[in-house]
Amino acid sequence: MLPDFGYGILLVTFLLSLYSIGAAIYGEVTRTFRWVETARRAMLLTFPLITVSTFVLMYLLATGHYEIQYVYSVTNNSMPLYLKLTALWGGQPGSLLFWAWLLSAFTSAVTLRKWDRDREFLPWVVVVASVTLAFFLALIIFFENPFWRWFLAPGSEQPILAMIQPAGTQAILPGDGQGLNPLLRHPGMIIHPPMLYLGFVAFVVPFAFAIAALVTGRTDDRWIRITRRWTLWAWLLLSLGLVLGARWAYDVLGWGGYWGWDPVEIAAFMPWLTGTAFLHSVMIQEKRGMLKQWNMLLIILTYDLVIFGTFLTRSGVLSSVHAFAQSAIGPMFFAFIGLTLVTSVALLIWRWPSLKAEVEMKSMLSREALFLLNNLLFIGILIVCFWGVIFPLISELVTGQKVTVGPPFYERATAPIFGALMALMAIAPLSAWGHSTVKTLGRAIWKPAVVALVAPVMMVIAGFVNVVALIGFYLVALVVFVTLYEFWRGARARQKAQGENFFAALWTLAGRNRRRYGGYIIHISMVLMAIGILGIEVYQTETQQSLAIGDSIELAGYTVHYDSLAQFQHTDGRWVTRAEVSVFKDGRFLQTLAPRYDVYPDGQPMTIPGLRSTLADDLYVVLVNWEGVSASVAPFKVYHNPLVNWLWIGSIIFILGMLVAAWPEKDTEAVAVRNRKAASAGIQAM
Amino acid sequence: MFGRFKFILGGALILAAVVYLIVSSTSASAEYFLTVDELEAKGESIVGRSLRVSGAVIGDTIQYDPETLNLTFQVAHVPGDNAEIEAQGGLAFVLHEAVTDPTRSRMTVVYTGAMPDLLRDEAQAIMTGHLGEDGIFYADELLLKCPTKYEEAVPEQAEGN
Fold first, then answer.
1. Is B40 strand, coil or helix?
2. CA-to-CA dists, residue A455 to A419, A451, A458, A461, A488, angstroms
3. DSSP assignment of A202-230
4. Which candidate, B100, B13, B95, B126, places its Cα nearest to that of A320?
5. Do A546 and B11 lie within an 8 Å CB cutoff?
6. Shortest alpha-carbon distance between residue A595 and chain B (Å)
7. Phi and psi for B17 in degrees, rounded to 5?
8. pTM of the model
9. Of the residues A47, A148, A214, B74, which has the maximum number of CB atoms within 10 A of its CB?
């Protein structure tokens, strides 16, 4: 039987990952490399095995095997094939399997690398990866099994989930499934979870190397150099996952925004914060030999926040608009997070003395001190987020009264920190390594600081006087000027020295210092995103009104004219109510929009806004609810979201910057070795 | 040694700033999460404060004027704690019990805005707003949760089985 086969494979993989933990440790302790090698090969095998199991589940999903409870809960006959396949991550058990699959792919890929120079890391990388994998497999096998069929005991209403039919029960064989929550049937939702999960899972790799470095005592920056590209990709994917989730919310949820400070969103945001801090601070370790203990702490935190994030999104422990089921795996997650955190921190304390900085940090304004400040600010935002998430639990424990904090809390508490981060983005590139003074830094920054005043001055002239916006746009302008100036300065220097033309010089410059200039492009992308966020946070306006056909609403200079309403049934069974509205500005017709309101056969509604999007602003028209409304009168809600498009433009530039930073370069050490060999060959020839 | 002290002082200042941001923002935007019973017990003492209340929507009481977007309905008391709801037989069951039990305490809610999609009988409403002196709850925000009708239910058998 196919489900049994898929389940059996998972069992085998679980045992295999336990074996690789044991074999790696035994091999390391007894110094028999043969054992370590079998552990490596066992880990390599987990990927093809889980792939088979995953494909079995996808086949069962695609072919409507509703005798399996998971298949029943996320697919139905009317769903198209691509949705049936992507229903793999539409519910908790499938998501866990998907997580384990991605993890095995990444860790298997890691074992395939050349280990010659880093043999001593191998057993511990295998142990960390296998422990993580074994944990997820155990969750799937014992608690959240996507292959469980369901059975009914006579006279009972409660189905029994099991692999083997219990005696005296009858199998439940539904003719159709319940189907995926319609809100999740959206392209954004098809790509968003895999991106997020890829980002989550990829952070396991640098963590595994960090632990290996701690255990073996090889605490130089080797582990960071090995995992540098992994970390960059992990960060890129996690960032994209967050942006895609935001875009999905904007397109499908119909509340005019993209980010609601929901615990599930914050759960994905927290590892991003520590990961971003880590990405910055490893540069200090590579360049100056400082912050070694701090880097270890950051990667440990990131790993456990990744696990915590998976748990929050999948366990339903916090009530949240994300309608995920309650489940029994909460205590398991907490035990695992506790165990890994305590073990890692104990290792870190053990190696603390050998992680001392090679140089002492002297100047408060040096580049490294500003990097440290950047790290502290990211951790500050993390603390705010963590506090907001656990505050209801704490207040309930302490006072017996559940007190929650909503978006205003996060906005108030994080806005100044985000502002400080932007200021740092402007200042840090101008500061020197080792030593900077107010004077040297001031000399470098006063020109862009003055030029950037153009932005707020122009805003005041145009009549925008909101203080938050003025400060925000000033910082945006400052970062843009400083960063472009850095590009210009570097390219100019090259142009003079090498006699290249300006653009060739720019190209080689970025090519030679990928991380630096890729990083600058990412800074630009971040401030472009900040433009969008400032626009919607400060200047969003909204209005709502019931309109009869022929009536109009006015908002922010736009006129939305209600033309017609149509109701029809879609081929997949949902009832679609579709309004057509014409958008005018200053009496000039711009566009027809069609906000929709869909109701699925199971009663689940979905509000799709009509959207007119330009670089200056978005007009977001929602047909709120037509129930109880005669066909000729319908309630509309209209949002005016200035500048929000820059958020998405910024995210595209962000990908560009990441590609510049993470694109494989020639292995510098290999090049160095080759040059040395060529040189010595040359000497011999002479 | 002065160099080290400088950095510790700087770190402490940043920490203090973050703590200040958290404390001030928490007290400015904390919302008390109450059940209808608790709200009734506290009465006058919490008039005007920022509150979050959950209750079961009583379908017959929903009144909605699409022209003015005025929405009124009543909610019945449900436990605030998820674990308690689970212990009593799941959300769908608890909501059903709450709506059909006439002895439960009830509260009138007023909201201005388009009627949310999910506002219907036996939905769980989570309302953010404040209690007026008239004992009516004025909601600024309305979140609704409907237990999926499939929850814990056994599906129909396919024909021919």
1. helix
2. 16, 9, 5, 10, 21
3. HTHHHHHHHHHHHHHT--STHHHHHHHHH
4. B126
5. no
6. 15
7. -65, -45
8. 0.88
9. A214
Average pLDDT over chain A, rounded to whole? 87
Quick: pLDDT tens for A6-39: 999 999 999 999 999 999 999 999 998 899 999 9
Tell me the C-alpha distance between A451 and A129, whole Å.
51
pLDDT grade for A604, boundaries at 50, 70 and 90: confident
Q: What is the pLDDT of residue B152?
A: 41
Give the H or E element holding residue A283: helix A263-288
CB A648 within 8 A of CB A525: no
Which chain A positions have a beta carbon within 8 Å of B123's beta carbon?
A: none
- Name the token pair of A388: 């907001």
Cα–Cα distance for residue pair A305/A121, rounded to 1 Å = 24
Cβ atoms A554, A637 nearer than 8 A: no
Of A66, A158, A406, the CB nearest to B29: A406
ipTM of the complex model: 0.79
Separation between Cα atoms, residue A509 and residue B66, nearest integer Å = 62
- Alpha-carbon span A448 to A483, nearest angstrom: 10
Q: A561 to chain B nearest CA, in Å?
A: 17
CA-nearest residue to A177 within chain B is B155
Specify the 3-state DSSP secondary structure of B124. Answer: strand
**Are the C-beta atoms of A384 and B22 separated by less than 8 Å?**
yes
A238 membership: H or E segment, kind and range: helix A222-248
Could you give the count of Cα atoms lying within 13 Å of B153 in the half-sphere of its Cβ? 14
Query: Are the beta carbons of B33 and A392 separated by less than 8 Å?
Result: yes
CB A374 within 8 A of CB A424: yes
Instruction: Give the distance from CA A623 to its chain's centroid.
Output: 31
Q: What is the dihedral of CA A132, A137, A140, A146, to 10 degrees?
A: 120
Alpha helices in A499-584, H assignment, sequence order: 502-512, 514-539
